[in-house]
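User: Fold this, then the next.

Assistant: Folding the first:
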Amino acid sequence: QVQLVESGGGLVQAGGSLRLSCVASGRTFSGLPMGWFRQGPGKEREFVAAASGGVTDYANSVKGRFTISRDGAKNTVYLQMNSLKPEDTAVYYCAARNGWYDSGTYYRPGEYDYWGQGTQVTVSS
């Protein structure tokens, strides 16, 4: 069992930066494939970033601006978001897949087993 709690969302101006945190409880998720997704108003939940083993990957829309990272000692996954744009406005969710040291990278919401409650990110013009 894994419980995930996101935090760090808020209102920022375009061009600004924000760091989201996802803290796990119940078990460590340092060795689990992790993902960040987002869902804007009236839109489907979409892939943002993933980390599996030593590999990270990003949606084209955020590549070069966002960075996913882990801190195993704090049992936390981060999403550093720089150069934010209004189109980044969404509820952001972290997710974990139930596979210890799984070397695969996963891009679809249905491929993840555990989800946080989401944190709102709003980017103003």
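Now the next one, as you asked:
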Amino acid sequence: QVQLVESGGGLVQAGDSLRLSCAVSGRTSSSYLMGWSRQAPGKEREFVSAIRWTGGNTYYSDSVKGRFTISRDNAKNTVYLQLNSLKPEDTAVYYCAACSRWYGSSWHRQNQYDYWGQGTQVTVSS
């Protein structure tokens, strides 16, 4: 079983930066698609970014493109999400997720992700 543990969230001001980490353990594959999703109060959960473990192809939603950067460290089995130029609307619980069988379909489809972390809170004040 795959376990995902997020960390790095916190309370920051608009314009600040954070780096979220997702530690991956258990039985996993280098072919996994790793994603970051978020859920703000009163809003639907949405994927904001994803990365292919092998190859490093990256994907971003329009709302975060140009501000967030996803990356991974194969040796450390860790996926990162660098959050720059944070806005109050970025306030949400951020979840790490893994898709074990991804063949190039829409990266942001929630129901294709098999494993989820517990989430880490990001709060951005004005």
